[in-house]
């Protein structure tokens, strides 16, 4: 794996960027990673989002250069003893999986970001219908993962997808089955257990969703329960979600961490540290202590 030039020595620090890394995005709210690190002890962030600039070329949010402010952000995190996992995709914007017309071209786009920052891991957030509900694009992404892992044997790859309360839907199941068929070595499959309905016990529904993911991985890959859980992860949402009436409370999230710990999940995170504050606007929409959810993630050790 290539090492980026000009980045701090902490780039190679022994921090696992996959395990416990809340999402952080540069669109608003609490955008200082070092303030969150100092307040909570969290060591890693999932940085959102790397998108297409309209071609098969990666840029932050589809517009910011890999060598600009986001590189400075990564350097600051590493100078503070942390590390990052960039996330490709998300819901909005133009996706590289759609714009790159071959697996090799898509792998090349991933490689630009890997080389720019000397990365240990990448997150492929496949939730937009252009990628998730398109068999051709699903296969292109998985073949690109295979090529990227061949070129970077030590790189960890996370694939993040939506979910039902009982696990991946038909598109998610296809993606997992195709990973097996293609031989794409995905290290952690992570589901987003929210936006289910208008409410309910979000801790219970999260556990049910991840259990469903575990069962799918067990069936597809022939894993034991323990191994399947270790290849499973979750990305929750703090406070009010996108669905009216649906809320992930601090108590819910504490319970979810207990579940993640008991099963040694390979990833435990949430969207997003930017929103990890009390009240509305850019915050969670609930009454909570500042950084309450980030602190819960920071305490997760797998």
From TrEMBL:
PROSITE patterns: GH18_2
Domain of life: Bacteria
Domain GH18 span(s) in chain numbering: 17-302
InterPro entries: GH, GH18_Chitinase, Glyco_hydro18_cat
Pfam family, one: Glyco_hydro_18
Name of this chain's protein: Chitinase
């Amino acid at each position: 794996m290539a090492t980026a030039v000009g980045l701090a020595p902490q780039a190679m620090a022994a921090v696992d960027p996959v395990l416990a890394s809340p999402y952080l995005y540069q669109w608003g709210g609490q955008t200082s990673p070092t303030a969150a690190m100092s307040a909570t002890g969290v060591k890693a962030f999932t940085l959102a989002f790397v998108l297409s600039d309209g071609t098969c070329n990666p840029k932050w949010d589809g517009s910011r250069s890999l060598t600009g402010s986001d590189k400075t952000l990564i350097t600051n995190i590493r100078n503070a003893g942390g590390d990052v996992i960039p996330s490709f995709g998300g819901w909005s914007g133009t996706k590289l999986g759609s714009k790159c017309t071959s697996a090799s071209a898509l792998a090349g786009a991933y490689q630009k970001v890997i080389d720019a920052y000397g990365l240990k891991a990448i997150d492929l957030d496949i939730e937009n219908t252009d990628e998730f509900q398109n068999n051709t694009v699903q296969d292109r992404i998985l073949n690109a993962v295979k090529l990227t892992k061949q070129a970077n044997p030590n790189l960890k790859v996370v694939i993040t997808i939506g979910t039902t309360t009982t696990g991946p839907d038909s598109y998610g199941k296809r993606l997992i089955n195709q990973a097996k068929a293609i031989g794409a070595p995905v290290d952690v499959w992570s589901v987003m257990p929210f936006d289910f309905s208008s409410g309910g016990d979000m801790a219970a529904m999260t556990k049910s969703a991840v259990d469903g993911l575990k069962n799918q991985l067990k069936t597809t890959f022939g894993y034991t329960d323990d191994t399947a859980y270790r290849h499973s992860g979750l990305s929750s949402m703090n406070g009010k979600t996108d669905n009216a009436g649906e809320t992930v409370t601090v108590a819910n999230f504490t319970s979810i961490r207990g579940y993640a710990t008991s099963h040694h999940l390979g990833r435990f995170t949430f969207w997003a540290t930017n929103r990890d504050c009390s009240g509305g606007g850019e915050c969670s929409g609930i009454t909570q202590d500042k950084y309450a959810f980030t602190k819960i993630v920071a305490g997760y050790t797998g």
